[in-house]
């Protein structure tokens, strides 16, 4: 009797292991996640490379050549959404100064806001990069500095004089999602922007600031996963461990097959 019981237990354990093995193989080798990358006619190759390194398919959502409904369909099929860097915003959207902004498209801005609203309605994990972080702030009612050097500070160079990439350190707030992701309270990031968050929207929280006090990262603590960073982790992905941690954490939280 005891031998039969032992054999039965072993069989049950084997079945459990087979079931667990099936789900591990399915989730890691058979089912590939898809991330929608929303942008306005920008080069997103570095994002594609980073996602490919994590076995993620990229769903290219170019607001400059797709109508809003097509963009929404692509977002609906995705497991997570990245709002990438790009042009300035129409300052009329947030009450800015038109004389200080550079290239922008009101049509693309309105599409991006509509797509973000749609993604939020579907509870998709969201990562905002550079313009994408600013988009999140505008969506919730915040505003921007139109030109940091003229309206904020020259203490830190946030974009090279000939529109080149530069670098500086940021301070990460303890207890924030970003702090838990990178495991550090101070890191170096790349920088390529002349706009920045001025008034933080209600409901959002600051995750990081630069030494001049500019907001460098935000998150929505009331949403399942919404993180915005002012720098470009995709550009430093291959040689910076913190950039890898940010993108890998976003991928991990992109819930394949649940939306």
From TrEMBL:
InterPro entries hit by this protein: Class_I_gatase-like (IPR029062), Peptidase_C26 (IPR011697), PuuD-like (IPR044668)
Organism, as annotated: Anaerococcus prevotii (strain ATCC 9321 / DSM 20548 / JCM 6508 / NCTC 11806 / PC1) (Peptostreptococcus prevotii)
Keywords annotated in UniProt: Membrane, Transmembrane, Transmembrane helix
Organism classification: Bacteria, Bacillati, Bacillota, Tissierellia, Tissierellales
UniProt GO molecular function: hydrolase activity, acting on carbon-nitrogen (but not peptide) bonds, in linear amides
KW Transmembrane (keyword) present: yes
Domain of life: Bacteria
PANTHER family according to UniProt: GLUTAMINE AMIDOTRANSFERASE PB2B2.05-RELATED
GO CC terms in record: cytosol
Record protein name field: Peptidase C26
Chain ranges passing through the membrane: 7-25
């Amino acid at each position: 009797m005891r031998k039969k019981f032992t054999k039965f237990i072993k069989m049950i354990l084997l079945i459990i292991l087979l079931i667990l093995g099936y789900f591990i193989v399915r989730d890691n080798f058979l089912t590939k996640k898809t991330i929608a990358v929303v942008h306005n006619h920008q080069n997103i190759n570095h994002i594609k490379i980073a996602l490919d390194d994590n076995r993620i398919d990229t769903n290219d959502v170019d607001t400059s050549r797709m109508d809003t409904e097509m963009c929404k369909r692509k977002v609906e099929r995705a497991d997570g959404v990245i709002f990438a860097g790009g042009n300035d915003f129409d300052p009329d959207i947030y009450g800015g100064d038109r004389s200080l902004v550079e290239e922008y498209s009101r049509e693309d801005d309105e599409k991006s806001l509509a797509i973000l609203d749609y993604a939020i309605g579907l509870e998709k994990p969201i990562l905002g990069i550079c313009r994408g972080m600013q988009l999140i702030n505008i969506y919730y009612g915040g505003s921007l500095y139109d030109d940091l050097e003229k309206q904020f500070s020259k203490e830190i160079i946030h974009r090279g004089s000939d529109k080149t990439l530069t670098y500086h350190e940021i301070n990460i707030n303890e207890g924030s999602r970003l702090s838990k992701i990178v495991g550090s309270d101070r890191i170096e990031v790349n920088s390529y922007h002349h706009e920045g968050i001025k008034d933080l929207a209600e409901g959002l929280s600051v995750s990081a600031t630069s030494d001049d006090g500019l907001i460098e990262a935000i998150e929505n603590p009331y949403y399942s996963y919404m993180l915005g960073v002012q720098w470009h982790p995709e550009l430093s992905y291959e040689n910076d461990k913190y950039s890898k941690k940010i993108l890998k954490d976003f991928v991990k939280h992109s819930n394949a097959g649940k939306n």
